[in-house]
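Section handout, structural biology tutorial.
Before the tutorial, make sure you can parse a SMILES string by hand: atoms, branches in parentheses, ring closures as digits. In the record below the ligand is pyridoxal-5'-phosphate, and the chain has 460 residues. In the tutorial you will relate the predicted structure tokens back to the input. Do not try to memorize them.
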Amino acid sequence: MDGSALREVALRTIIEPFRIKTVEPIRMTTPGDRDRILRSARFNPFRIHGSDVLIDLLTDSGGAAMSSEQWAGIMRGDESYAGSESFWRLRDTVKKLTGFENVLPTHQGRASERILFELVGGPGRVVPSNAHFDTTRANIEHSGAEALDLGIAESADPRRRHPFKGNMDVAALEALIARVGADRVPVVMMTVTNNTSGGQPVSLENLREVRRVCDRHSLPLILDACRFAENAWFIKIREPGQRERTVRQIALDMFDLADGVTISAKKDGLVNIGGLLLIRDPALFERACNLLILTEGYVTYGGLAGRDLEAMAQGFEEVVEDDYLSYRIRSVEYLGEKLLAAGIQIIEPPGGHAIYIDAAHFAPHLPREEFPGQAVVCGLYRVGGIRSCEIGGVMAGPGRTPPMELVRLAIPRRVYTQSHIDYVAEACAELFAVRKELRGLRIVRAPEVLRHFTAEFEEV
Ligand SMILES: *Cc1c(COP(=O)(O)O)cnc(C)c1O
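Predicted structure of the complex:
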């Protein structure tokens, strides 16, 4: 093939790199059905039954379609209480991928966070991050410590196209350490990709700069690496000098910089349940093992079945494949392009796992006290049976004003086809055309922490 033929291949549609072997019907509903369902769910999509949702973009967590090899692994799973062969396979896969020797399986990401912050958190301490995920923040605060977000200024502007909008503001990190003292900072965290700021990647350069600051003050660096493969792909295609390197090499560079890692395998592990806690320091690892045994199970299964470990090991192999990642990132970008073309403001450029609609732009007639993001979420369900998630005032919690009011359309991995995504874009455009009719919401009941999961609303 000469150069022109190669260019032509690159211009063709990037297709789903799989064919479908098992199908799961989804249920069509009428607008009348959906209005009734929404009201009985108190305008909170977390309270809607899954079977009442047509296209479920609530989260990209745990909804992945597993491959035939993963399902084969489910049968091969070794259910030995201690020393399961499935654990050793997972340990070897994770070691090859991350370089970490000390691997603990957990049932999901927040279990890893809970153990980590029981060890390093506590009153008077401050944990900085590019942006903490909600469960990470909640676990840090539950330990009595303070969780701080130090994203770069560009991340607060939805229109600003920056290749690595997930980066940390390194000068702000230095200033924080100078202000509170290094002894009050137990760890520095970096979330890759940065979920809270729009699934935006962090550059290798930024990770290295943060590492240098950590070294100067002898602070451990922890990666929240739920979407490490998507982040590595963005580094490959956007960071100078990285294009010829493999995703595995880039991912290894990222992990090499860290002293510890928390992972929810429900994202880039391509499984429905599972997580990891990796810790380099042997003494700290031993303490983590003891805590894990207290609530999760033995150290070679961490609250999971042997078959889950087997599926996770296989998922971590598949997620770093170029064909998978180019399809994955392109399919999210495709939805983003369609919404922008319809005049809907999203966080630009599109992130790795989701499209984030700027709800303040979508529904400018609604004040922040009336939760414009939640109003758009309810509107999308009414118009198209699409379930999305507010990431704004509701999720931030009382007394906090997040930088943006967003609606996240998270794309589960390998689940929906291009026509599903076309349908989503059409429904968004339909709602946008009648956006002035969207009504605000007020909270009638909510728990003290993580209120977005269970809060009840009524229309203003
Ligand atoms: C999902 C997620 C977590 C928590 O993981 P769970 O498996 O939901 O407990 C932590 N950090 C980030 C960035 C996440 O996206």
